[in-house]
Design goal:
Blueprint lengths: L9 E2 L10 H4 L4 E5 L3 H11 L6 E4 L3 H10 L4 E3 L12 E5 L6 H10 L3 E4 L7 H14 L3 E3 L7 H11 L6 E10 L8 E2 L12 H17 L4 E6 L6 E4 L3 E3 L5 E8 L2 E9 L7 E8 L3 E5 L11 H16 L1 H21 L8
Parallel strand pairs: 1-16, 2-3, 2-5, 3-4, 5-6, 6-7, 8-14, 9-11
Antiparallel strand pairs: 8-15, 10-13, 11-12, 13-14, 15-16
Helix pairs in contact: 2-8, 4-5, 5-9, 7-9, 8-9
């Protein structure tokens, strides 16, 4: 027993070995990486080495194109999205550009005939997301959106056990995602300054990783509100010499789903050596916890996340029932993050 008299939490397994590989999920597809930043380099690039002869990388930055050429020397490299031709046959495009550009880039990719997997956030609003879904349907293409945390095996297990009465009557769900953040070195590169712009914030950056699994478990909330701080620590932008004078580096969201209360905490904490992320469901007879983070493996960083994303794309393409549920869950996630999340403005 714990000190508070409750039984200890049962922790669900974080990772499941043997996750399907991209060569199994999308064996005959051409793949396009639009944007070759950190996510592309660390998560997706290593999983595409074996099929790099059918990979195209679209990247505006000459430095990042050079990084792509080193990692995927047989891949085709393009300077701009305007250089990408219409898809020939089945092709999947991974939209990995900065958040504020996601919706416009996804629209362009769909119009070129690509299936699209969009990194988070998929669109600025739920309404814009549904417009993109409608375009995909008219084009006969599939559209999926990260994060894939909502589809981790442990989250699937948690959802099944909670719904089967594994913790008695559910009453609380708590989620957190804490990370060092983009200014962890005391400054931020000009290419990443958008993280602190009007169209982004800690909620939009880290929130989806927790909100999406909570939506998967509980659905759409009856009410939800965010409360965000406004840290008055200047952040230099290098190399341009500008300074971001104030930014929100932490937020807490509280919502109600019927009789269940949910709490979400997201924060940038520069001293953290690694991400700390979890979700816990508490009921009348016990609780279940799951680690939402996926620490890199020594040989293949983030392979579960990358291949989980490819598997999500496969499921959206193949299963209409799953696709409809995914579309609805992404819309709800965006409602929580945008419509409600942006209501609490930073203090100025």
């Amino acid at each position: 027993m714990r000190g508070d008299g409750r039984p200890p939490a049962r922790h669900l397994a974080r990772r499941v070995r043997g996750v399907v590989r991209v060569t199994e999920v999308l064996p005959d597809f051409r793949l396009v990486l639009v944007g070759y930043g950190r996510i592309a380099e660390v998560l997706y690039g290593p999983e595409l080495v074996s099929i790099q002869d059918r990979v195209t990388v679209v990247e505006l930055s000459a430095d990042r194109r050079a990084a792509a050429a080193r990692a995927l020397p047989e891949a085709a490299l393009l300077n701009a999205l305007d250089d990408l031709p219409p898809a020939a046959g089945d092709a999947v495009a991974l939209n990995l550009v900065p958040g504020p550009r996601h919706a416009a880039v996804t629209e362009r990719l769909l119009s070129l005939g690509h299936h699209v997997l969009s990194e988070k956030p998929a669109a600025p609003t739920a309404g814009r997301w549904l417009e993109l879904v409608a375009l995909a349907e008219r084009s006969g293409r599939a559209l999926a959106a990260a994060p894939v945390t909502a589809y981790f095996p442990g989250v699937e297990t948690l959802v099944k056990q909670v719904r089967a009465g594994g913790i008695g009557v559910p009453g609380e769900v708590h989620g957190a995602f804490l990370a060092a953040g983009p200014a962890r070195r005391g400054y931020i590169d000009a290419s990443r300054a958008w993280f602190f712009g009007a169209e982004s914030c800690v909620i939009r950056d880290l929130g989806p990783y927790v909100v999406a699994p909570m939506v998967r478990l509980l659905g759409r909330p009856d009410q939800f509100a965010w409360h965000r701080n406004g840290v008055r620590l200047p952040v230099p932008v290098r190399p341009v010499g500008a300074v971001i004078p104030v930014y929100g580096n932490a937020a807490v969201g509280v919502g109600r789903w019927g009789d269940v209360i949910g709490r979400i905490e997201v924060a940038y904490r520069p001293w953290l050596p690694r991400v700390e992320a979890s979700m816990t469901a508490v009921g009348s007879t016990g609780e279940l916890s799951f680690d939402l983070d996926d620490p890199p493996l020594p040989d293949r960083p983030g392979r579960e996340k990358a291949n989980g994303a490819f598997d999500l794309m496969r499921r959206v393409m193949a299963d209409p029932v799953f696709r409809a549920a995914h579309v609805a869950d992404v819309a709800t996630t965006l409602e929580i993050i945008d419509s409600l999340g942006q209501a609490q403005e930073e203090r100025t």
